[in-house]
Known about the structure:
By secondary structure, the chain is α/β, with parallel strands linked by helices. It folds into three domains: 1-207, Growth Hormone, Chain: A (Up-down Bundle), CATH 1.20.1250; 219-411, Growth Hormone, Chain: A; 463-674, 3-Layer(aba) Sandwich (Rossmann fold). Helices cover 53% and strands 12% of the residues.
Amino acid sequence: MANAGIQFLFAGTIFGSAFLLFLVQPLIAKQILPWFGGSAAVWSICMVFFQVALLAGYAYSDWISRHLRMRAQALLHVALLLASLAFLPIVAGAQWKPAGAEDPAWRILGLLVGTIGLPYFLLSTTGPLVQSWVSRTPWGARVYRYFSLSNLASLLSLLSYPVLIEPRSTLMQQAIGWSWGYAGFVVLCAGTTLYMARRWNHDLPAAAASTDAPVAAPRRIDQLLWLALPALGSWLLLAVTNHITQNIAAVPFLWVLPLSLYLLTFVLCFESDRWYRRGLFVPLAAAMLALCAYQLQDGAGLKIHTALTIHVAGLFVLCMFLHGETARLRPGPAHLTRFYLMLSLGGAIGGVTVGLGAPYLLPAYYELGIGLVLAALLGALVLRARWLLWVPGVGLAACCGWLLSEQVRSDHEGLRTLGRNFYGSMHTYDVRRQDPPDYVRQFVHGSIKHGEQFLSPERRREPTTYYGATSGIGRAIEALPIGARRVGLIGLGAGTLATYGRTGDVYRFYEINPEVFDIADREFTFLRDSRARIERVLGDARLALERESAQGFDVLAVDAFSGDSVPVHLLTAQAMQVYLRHLRPDGVVAFHVTNHFLALAPVVARIAQSQGLHAVLVSDDAEDSAWLHATDWVLVARDPQVLARAPIAAAAQPIAVDPTARPWTDDYNNLLGVLK
């Protein structure tokens, strides 16, 4: 085979493995997202698995390239490739669905191992293993360009998912298509492996065939930086992703954006030395460190659009610095697999620390602030030989540390409780209202207020925030006929809607986060003050409703959104069918669709239209009340006369729907298409 053909074979194998490796990440995460409440934390746990599996693949590549002859490498690797075909197609089994209150993190990790474990492991071995073979060929001096090619393939894969794949195919089609692609990769990789086995020197271990000249071992400080620099890059990637997905949506698009920029920095820094320039990126990184640290303050005064731009740009610049310095330290081909192993180990350490450790070790989202401090300190270490750069680096670390302390101090002003788990950070505060003057207690989940109650006994039964009498849900409850009412509520918050409960009513709350029940009981009185009988169901509402017998709700309120974060599995045609099974013939399903970034009313209306239902929008500007917020609710009913009742009809608006738009299903949704 000609040299050009051999190089194409190597390049094609590496490109294909990296493309499939990163395509499966949003694909499998989207499959399992509905089972765990649509939480943005699902992606963090998935990222931990991906990084640890990548580390295992790199360790495997390092070990067999150093200790096995080429023929033994080939036999082992081809056997594993063939065994991995048993995992196809990559469809998560229903046995992995959570049953209730178990820790989601470990179930997600077990699910990923059982669904894509061996295929993902083998894809992750391909880059370093094939590059170790390339390093022993006549064109081995340019081996690091294959690493750049690998990251380019990963980047193209990630960008193609939200733009080309997700809007045009169902999840099942995606899984089947990926599985066929993986089968093709197995054939290509096995062919590459067997070709190398035929052409290699059978008499020497692979590691001995690389060169006869002695190669100096890398310095300890360099090996430490091989670990620390990518660890901090991975740390910042997950911390920034957590920060932005808490306020928009737990969807692949917003996972892909920071991850794509992260990969782009690898592509640029390892393609050649011309992209990373210290003179440009060191001052840029210093500026972005200070700006990102400042933006974490409550008083920063920046809109979410500006904040997103700052954090995403900051991630790119900081990763250019971290990965550019990593590329400057790359060793000769003899130490290539060890270099990749350390790089992967660093990425896994950063990912595990943020994805698994932070939710249980930190009471709030402080990992980004901590990461910025560590980035400044690591920059000072890297630039330690030049005191004109080292001293400002230490000063910048001190500045970021002070801003972090200010963030912590601000969080504790008026604070009553502070806690965090898999589902996010939860706080309660006592705040004095000026107009009208009164004290209120607020429940904040992440950075979004999820409830508020007046502390004075004469006012504590008043509905507040999104649930006033003129809101869509207030009108839907008021429109119910006289008599005992049965109301279902997906999402508890502070329990505000329990204020509408009357004697004889039943209010059944579905809440996935056990800490929310605890806070609602301990910090607020909405539930115990309600005249209705309160029922509680712990776990994902969609899964709980699928298991329960018909509840006969007069109203079912779907209000499980975390700020602007959308659990998409509650907004699909299948979800609507589940709701209808629990609804009385003249009942109403009320969707809380208030959102800064996504136009969700047409989505709900299109689903309703596809199933012969009727939907109206109730927008309430709440201008007459200082303690109510502007809201949008979509009310859905089987009978249009239900939506014509006086309290609803007075504020109901028709919803413009594109009849050609595809209704969202469990297999299909398109959040890019509903961006405002």
